[in-house]
Amino acid sequence: MDGTAPGHPQGPYVLNLAPESWEEHLDRASTWLANVVTTQVAFRQALEIAVPKIEEPNIRQFLSEMLDRARQHEEVAHELPRALGREAADGARSLAGVVMDVARKALDTVEGLAGGARGNWKDLHHLLLLNLDAMGAFAIAEQLGLALAHPGLRDLAWGVQAEKSTDQLILQELMLEMAAVSILYGERV
Q1: Would 3 be classed as within a structural domain?
Q2: Is residue 103, in this structure, part of any structural domain at all?
Q3: CA atoms 29, 30, 31, 33: torsion sign
Q4: What are the C-alpha distances in Å from 114 to residues 108, 111, 173?
């Protein structure tokens, strides 16, 4: 049966779930979706800082295109709670993104210096880690869409996660290539 016959509801449904329980699920999911905004804001802000510092034109071009996608992904992150009928995250989450970015950058600096790397390859390493965080947050949002039988949430998150996966591979390749140059020659990228 296709679910359209009388007595067969069309679309997803959950059995024996009280309306209050459903609202609690949506509230919990919405709280998590604020984390998606936080991680994406941190990634976008780090890209905005890194792009002007990159001297190599091809890498700068890749990162500039990634920055354009990051801005679009941030817009989608704000749409995720709205897909559930909830309000988007407030400014406190954006501030958390800034704090998270600063802490991660400090760790990257210590790691790079301890390993003998010079130059700004660590900016690429930093971006690699922040994108991974944001990619994981979108992947969890996709899973929430599946668990809640909410195709709108699932599809929004999946689209971004797929693009971020490609960006992750690009960042990894750029970081690995430039780390070797930085370590061996002490050069900036």
Answers
A1: no
A2: yes
A3: positive
A4: 10, 5, 22
User: Does residue 10 have a pLDDT over 90?
Assistant: no
CA atoms of 29 and 7, how far apart (whole Å): 30
User: How large is the average pLDDT for residues 107-117?
Assistant: 52
In a domain, 173, yes or no: yes
Residue 131: give its domain's CATH number: 1.20.1260.10
DSSP secondary structure, 38-101, as one string? HHHHHHHHHHHHHHHH--SHHHHHHHHHHHHHHHHHHHHHHHHHHHTT-PPP-HHHHHHHHHHH
pLDDT at 180: 83
What pTM did the predictor assign?
0.79
Nearest to 36, CA basis, from 66, 69, 80: 80
Q: What is the mean pLDDT of residues 185-189?
A: 68
Count Cα neighbours of 99 within 13 Å in the Cβ-side half-sphere: 7
Neighbours of 172 (CB within 10 A): 15
Instruction: Give a yes or no: residue 166 inside a domain.
Output: yes
Q: Which residues contact 179 (CB under 8 A, 6 or more apart)?
A: 117, 121, 124, 125
Task: Output the six-digit token pair for 95.
Answer: 């501030």
Query: How many domains would you assign to the chain?
Result: 1
**What is the domain extent for residue 134?**
21-185
What does the mean pLDDT of the chain come to? 81
Question: What would the pLDDT profile of 48-105 be if each residue is shown by its tens digit?
Answer: 999 999 888 999 999 999 999 999 999 999 999 999 998 865 554 555 555 555 555 5
